[in-house]
Request: fold
Amino acid sequence: MRHLEINDLTAGYGGTPILRGVSLGVDKGEVVSLIGPSGSGKSTLLRVLIGLTPPSAGAVHVGGEAVDYGKRASVAALRRRMSIVFQQFNLFQNMTVLGNITIAPIKTRGLAAAAAEARARALLDNVGLADKADQYPDQLSGGQQQRVAIARALAMDPEILLLDEVTSALDPERVGEVLDTIRTLAGGGITLILVSHEMHFVREISTRVVMMDAGAVVETGPPSQIFGEPEAARTRAFIGSIVGGL
Amino acid sequence: MIERIVAEAPAFFSSANLGFVLAALGRTLFMTFVGCGLGFGIGLGLAVLRRTQAPMLAPARWLAMLWVETFRRIPFLVILIMVLFGVQPLVPEISLIGIATIAVTLVATAFLSEIIRAGLESVPRAQVEGAAAMNFSAWQSFWLVVLPQSWRVILPPAAAFMVMFIKDTSLASHLGVVELTFSGKILVNRGSSPVLGYGIVLLGYFILSWPLGRLARMLEVRLAPSRNQ
Reply:
């Protein structure tokens, strides 16, 4: 049984199809990277998976359990196993760093405040921001905010973590610190599904790379295949167009 | 004229007159604060209702919109008279100040609900999505994330509205409510100099509105997150 099973998933905004039947299986502990041109549906796939954009058809199974995106209880159960980190961080501006990390475990999982705080401080230490616990998000740099956002997602103890272009909104010199944080997660048992334009990073960290175009999966394979000997013409063209960056 | 004012001053500032004006000031204060307070509460409810998306609440949303759009467009004096003739037959023992306070509530609800709605909408959608992805209920998302971030946008215009409304309550004198303006008129009719009679009214409005403006500014700074603290 695969950890995450996506079958023929379709979704769209107001009649415009974005995902046209995506199927993908992900095993526990895998690091799967979604690549492809803008508008190919990578971010939409993550949004559908976490229940922010409703699918129009298809099935998603997490740990063998079917997710019913129309039912609040089913989505809530899903979100206890899956978290997401956004491109724009989406940290709560009215809360301190510590508040951002502790609020969901306390309010949605019933964790005691002291336990949530201890866990938050340990996670902040892991991402190298132990001294920023009492600051507000707008007092931090983009890279620091994104590391807080990662800590916040991890505080929910997800089995699957979705990372949606988490370095795209950062200054180039801040990208490294966030990628370092993600590197420490890979191979630690958590399943990572990430959308990224950092091709060096994707090649280095992924167990599998998924090439998407026009709302569908074009090709799936290990990084050596996708970046070395892609089978599909579309993948070859895409990799060729960005090869200057590799 | 100055001689007349100086000559009249000791009699004018008698404890009876001051008590009379103070009681009137209290009525102005009561109409404004109770009316705007209730208006804020109900307005918040209407603003939240208008943000809902459930199809079954559509008629309620429509009624809320009708309320807001109606009471924002009718002059306050007309609403006062409407409430007088609408409520008095139903509740004959209601006081005039009660009627005026209901009228203030109706108008304040309409205006404050729009101010609150604009404040709630100023919070980026990404904040709500972040909350949803972390399994917050709609209520938790509203209470813990959206509302705290919208105070900064809601408070300045809400306070400005209230300060403005302190002055508009003078129209309640048309109903016979002895509020601040009416008390000045009565003093002048009793023979006081208009300079003293309306001068004390002027001072009364200033005393009411100036601290309120300061308080709003203080709250605005205090409620703003992080850097402004």
Observations:
- Chain A has a mean pLDDT of 93.
- The CA atoms of residues 68 and 74 of chain A lie 6 Å apart.
- The longest strand of chain A covers residues 16-26.
- The interface with chain B takes residues 50-52, 76, 79-80, 83-84, 86, 88, 90-95, 103-104, 107-109, 135-139, 152, 156 of chain A (CB under 8 Å).
